[in-house]
Structures
1.
Amino acid sequence: MNLYKLKLIPLISILITAIFSTNSFALFDSSEKAALLENEKNTINIFKNNVMSVVNVSNIRNIKRGGFFSGYSEMEVPAGQGSGFVWDDKGHIVTNYHVVQGGDSFLISFHKDTKQYKAKFIGGEPKKDIAVLKLIEIPKNLKSLTIGSSQALQVGQKALAIGNPFGLDHTITSGIISALGRKIKGYGGVTIQGMIQNDCSINPGNSGGPLLDSQGKLIGMNTMIYSSSGSSSGVGFAVPVGTIKSIVPQLIKHGKVIRPGLGIGLLEDNVKLYFGIEEGIVIKFVDPKGPAAKVGLKGMGRDGSGRYIFGDIIIKINNEKVNTYDDIYQVLENYKVGQSVEVTFIRDGKEKKLKIKLAAL
């Protein structure tokens, strides 16, 4: 064997070893991927497909510093953070109202994008804890979430939350839907109906982020947790996507929600109880241009000595009892502007009924 052959044999051995080593790593890598459970693969794909549509929302407030003699200067101060998600290709961002309340300006951050994008406030509905922002500058390849439905949800099905807990960039947690149709006192002081209870780990900073199903479709917006410590206790609540779909288009179009009403002001519940009235809602005043005034409903007044006297006390609307502001809010939410309702009320100790055509508030 000549010197050329002697040199060639080790070289061939090295090449063969390298080839087998490369293949072994490839086989090892593919076997690792194959070892993932289908549920794990599903979670991974949902995160990859939707994380670019979930944003971090920074609430910025302008404050004045200085004094009368030194002069005042204005500076921007971070007032809080939360999550949100892209609603459409026009740059509308949906989040919780409590995330953006009181903000003078807003900064939006996307996953793996070092740039912060300015956004302006479009409108909000505090009673549903929903708000809409709009990007002033739209980034390239903006992608919105796929909107699902909350009508066919089932207790026990998989749920996933993507957000920014404690300011940590784009985190996913998974769990199940624990209960449906929860009635939870919302940020705006009234009950939010149909809330989705889930056990995904939800923490401060997750507010406004999406709740997704196993297909990666939006089924709700994470809003609050029940916890004595303020951190996740496995009991989180999300506004159902059905509510979001009915509110967001109105906020985009009008900047507010157009609600039907009677055109009355109500006496506060605690004051009503102070006067010993336990049933019904006391009309405090009547809008002279509203529908209640047109049919002759009366609010509170004063007698000749200056003492308050009660007017009408509404006890039912279309045979549904109403005892609080929350009650009348929930009843009227089922009707539209222009529809008529039958109002049962007490006047001078006698029960009376009137038909009232609802008007926009």
2.
Amino acid sequence: MPAGSWQSVTYGKGQFVALSSTNADPNEMVSTNGQSWTATSGPAGPWTALSFGDGRFEAVSSAGQIDTSTNGTQWTQVWNHSNYDFTSVAYGNGHFVATDSALGAVAISTNGVKWGRLFPAPNTVAKWGAVVYGIGEFVVLDNSSSGYIATSLYGSVWTVHQLSPAHEIDGATFGCGTFVGVGQSSTSTANFISSTSGTTWTTAAAPIDATSHWSAVGYGAHRFVAVDASGNIAWSSTSANCSAAIPTSPRQVSGNINNGKVWTYMHPPSSAGGAPVNSYRVNISNGTIIKQCSAPVYFEPNCIISGLEDHHVYWVTAQSHNRFGYSAPTDPEFVIPVASSAFDAVTSGPVVSGGEPVVVQVTGIRANGEGIYPLSPITVHVGATIAICHASPFGECLLTLSNPPVGSDSIYATYSGFGRSYQSPTSNVTVTT
């Protein structure tokens, strides 16, 4: 290999690509066989991680850079914010996700060119050290010993979990139906963690020095292989048959609302796992109660949950099931049951105390015959304030307007779709002092 400091490597389009963790020439090397390497100037680093997906390479650096390339040698910078310290990047489900250990953020992209950011957990605590994709979901793991782990299907909505005892996780991988993370534990000798769901984790002891700092792990040829900062290598074998796996999550969860009811549809998962899917489960919750219904295997599995309160906000998730267990839940979607399916915009209460936000519920947004809601935004008018939203898969919007002015304001919503314009009736909200 050419002289240098090589920390990141990935494979795509018939070649291995590695980037340097120091900003020193050569910054890059490539190989078509993993044995003979060619050095090139490459993009200036310092690079910490590489990923390949959707026909392009994505590189992230500890200096807050993200570069992209379609051939692995010609690179374009698409993000440069020095207050970020990117540690890892992964691709899955049509999305790239990069983790940051400086602010506790994740960066998200659907095309590898345009990126946005989110804070899955309190950014004063979580410092993300690794991201990995498997069984239809992303998993990000903390490297500051806070014990936070967060999961998401698309990277836009995250569920945070707490690992106890807390571990510092710097590397993660997925293989044979299992997530594996490696790092360093300040409270025990268990420097390895694993999970088949991304939510519940078990620990394993380090095979050598308990204080060793494990930095990376990968999967291949029925083995997990981990390396540490002292030059040690550890491996753990798996069954030669990895087909015994749970399915991925259902796709395109949507539905209709009615008086006290939610009717949920979905499409089968992209992967059935190690056995045929035999059922689906829909969960709905308002934070206090949880209701479920079971959907049979069908082209568009569906079921109805009743006994809900109108104009209360509920969150819906769905799971696939085979004989090995349930998939990860889909990202939560909100639903608001209402007595009438007419287009309407109302607040959660006609009177709001000063300093409290005004919450606007927009329901009854119409879809076309294929169940597609208008791509045009819904405009919500609250007095002189205008807010924009896009319909959820259940044909609704939920807006929170902070610091509304004192007084009485009218509320209505408008949108254009499928050849005509719609305007809701006008209601009023009063903000008191």
3.
Amino acid sequence: MLELLKKGNKSSLIASIVNLFIAGIRGGAWFVTGNTAMFAEFMHALADSANQGFVYIGTALSKKPPTPRFPNGFGRVVHLVCLAAVLVVAIMSYETVKEGVHHLLHPTESGGLFLLLTVFIVGVILEFFVLYKAMNYVLKEAGVEKTGFQVIFLSFKHLKKASPATRLVFMEDLVASCGGLLAIIAVLTSHFTPFKQAEGVASVIIGLSMFYVVSRVFMDNVTGAIGESDPEMEARIGELVMQDSSVKDVQKIVVIREGEELHVELEVEVDPSLSIAQADDIKDRLETKILTHESVTDVIIAFDETDKVNHWAKKKGQLEKKK
């Protein structure tokens, strides 16, 4: 089990630990001050920590090798775990919105401004740190090497190429960071103006933003649990295969993403006069090339004789439209 945990998604582990610490200090500040915005951010951090902890365990379990009972492996476990984690966030989102609405209807003034601002500022700094780490993981998984401020902009561009776990951490901490800033504004507004409902407004917005993350994560992981095709990898692998001089055409190519794993199925056209030994050499050569991609776990290759029809050109055009 310990060996499996070492293979879990590192960004979700870091995020879970940091958010647990943030939840602790925010929970203490809420207990002392009774501030509604602090309660919302406490629930947000606690939900994120639990969610990301589930995801870390799920990604670790998904690395378990196939067994006789489960010959296809455990790649989709991470999606099932993420779906379970979504329920936790949904419940906490509801509680956050409910508390915000209560404060809107019955506004109260809370003290401890210095304590509130200190805790919020520390939390926002830590959340931005986790977000920046998640941005780096997004680029790493997308195969992009950048540093500095370029990481911020490029991470949004390449977010779809990241694993489900990394996307979840990215989205949760993006919303959490923005929620922390909103909470600071709400506390200052409530303290220095007659608008005491500002904290309730912030709580409702934070709760609704959590619901947004729930919906996005739910849809991402439903498609992943079913088994989703990866058009970009299909195009890349198709081009790689077509570079082999023995391959005349690609009749069929399917790349299915299960968690962080990719399963490749190919049907290629070759010269019908080739011997079985020569065809086997081609198969071994193509498998070796395709398996160099770290996410590809297995490759199935079938052969057919060339029919003089350019199937790959048509397929390539369809993939480019999807991109």
4.
Amino acid sequence: MPLEQYLVDNHAGWRLAMSRRRPVGDAPLAARPVLIVPGYGMNSYIFGFHPRGPSMIDCLSARGLEVWTVDLRGQGRSIRARGNNRYGLADLAIEDIGTAIAHVLANTKTGATSLDIVGCSLGTALAFAHVASVPTAPVHALVSMAGLVTWRGAHPVVRFAFGSPRLVGLMRIRNTRALARVALPLLTKIAPSLLSVYLNGRSTDLTQASKLVQAVEDPHPIINREIAEWIKRGDLVVRGVNVSKRLPELKHPFLCVVANDDGIVLPATSRHTYDVIGSDKKRLLIVGDPEQPIAHADLFLFTGAQERVFAPVADFLLEV
């Protein structure tokens, strides 16, 4: 079944690109729709692509889930219709995710009045920032895929890259996708260890570089600075709300998916949300082993993701 595509006004100068994949096959329609939120420097393309089998969207919709994706400001097909290009984490978390939630619930075929959110990498932080800042948000369950709320340590490469909030906030990097198109095959051949903090060639088929890089987006200077400040502080703070401190108060059913060899969000940082959230229904899924190490983006792309990640995510959402 093809994706249904939408452009949705966020009332802040942007039209956010959203898509829906309706359930296929004989599986009964799930009770609630699911919204997938991408992370930083990426877009929703990755959810509909897998180099060796059905994608995440394919797998979830085959289980009866109505699957929605959103590209936030600066991602994918989203369009800046007016105004400037200045925005930060709070704008993405509160206005953009709020817009996406409202659109899903106004158009879902499930008849539900709440939805589930799968946050990927930074998308997890944005989802938690939304529910912590908007207590009445109609969000039922939350899934974190290689995501975080509180920094409990960072890889040396990440600490170096975001070492100076002021400096990183002044840097504007363009044409990242074109750079990745050249760099990915090169690193795969001559320096796989450098690439392995994000993608591990032992676990993921990297031969389709031209397709993989379609998920890549340019970083944003303001968000770069905010991430650097967040790493130094540890806690996620959005518009005066300390999201990290609110975690014990949150009761949403929660699935935490951790990549065992993640060099972007270290496993201890990723699982910290699971350790402190106040939910009575929570589950931890650690993916990867010495024979098949799973890095940050491998969770969506590695050989066997369908059985080891996508199926458990669907099981959890259907169960809760």
